[in-house]
Amino acid sequence: MPRERGKLLIAQSYNRPEEFKPLERYADIFWLDRMSEEEQARILPLVDCLFSHGWPKALDSKVPLMKSLRFLQTGNAGVNTVRFDLLDKKVVVCSNVGGYSDEVAEFTVGLMMAAGKSIVGFDRELRSGDYRHPTLDVVGRRVAFFRGKVVGIVGYGGIGKSTARMVRGFGMKVLAYGRHPVKERGVTGLRGPGGLTRLLRESDVVILAVPLTKATKGLIGAQQLAAMKKDAILVNVARGEVVQKEAVFAHLKANPGFSYATDVWWPGGDGRETFAPDLPFNELPNFIGTPHASGPTAIITGTMAKGVVENFTRYFQGRPLKNVVDRSEYQ
What we know:
331 residues, alpha/beta, Rossmann fold, 2 domains, 11 helices, 31% helix
């Protein structure tokens, strides 16, 4: 059944407010950073639904005031930053899985190409001003040819599926590791510890696209890296903590033919993602890093907001919600 008119709180400033306009037919919309303390004291206890892109620090003190809160929709596909400990158990939390799939997948393929084709390495050498062109066969060995190679995708959700579709266009074979059976033609699904080991062992490129949960934190460590090919490419568009920092740094130093290309980073002392890790990754020629830039394009294209608005519409209309989070995976 449709719900009574609600009160939706947007937790932080958002530079495309018009995207929430369709929801005005269902709820009064409030912006946290536009409200005075007096307004917050009056309105927050009445708020029944909340939108948050990430988890602003300001919410730590505001959530306890929201006694009527029943639904939190995140703008992110990953919900590892959500303070579940502050949320009453009756609050349903939904992620925005699918809101970034094609945009992040394109970036993922870009990282794979940058590493495999030595694009970043060639650029660095040319910029140094003393590049000397070697023989053609030496150059050729530095430029991977992906047709017929195997790409293993760890985490076969929206991003993983979109990435698989793109790399199959190169003529690559796809192995997909996840919790659910894979029924797509041309994709070999793998599950369980043995499935992950097989994927790591057989893949020329391994792509990490899993959410950060209790089960995936530190998923790729020294043992898993050792199972991979010495000249493999590891691409991470999941979360930094999925890969054990010290292990991948040591593996890169010991295996110069191995590459690690990441758009996500490990947290600093304040718990937030930092682009300046305490190990000198940027000194390694087989490391490529970008500043978590794969997702924001989805804000520009509007796909991020589309999923958010759709799920809020479902909430107000009393229909089943998409991407409901299992709290037990995070607490």
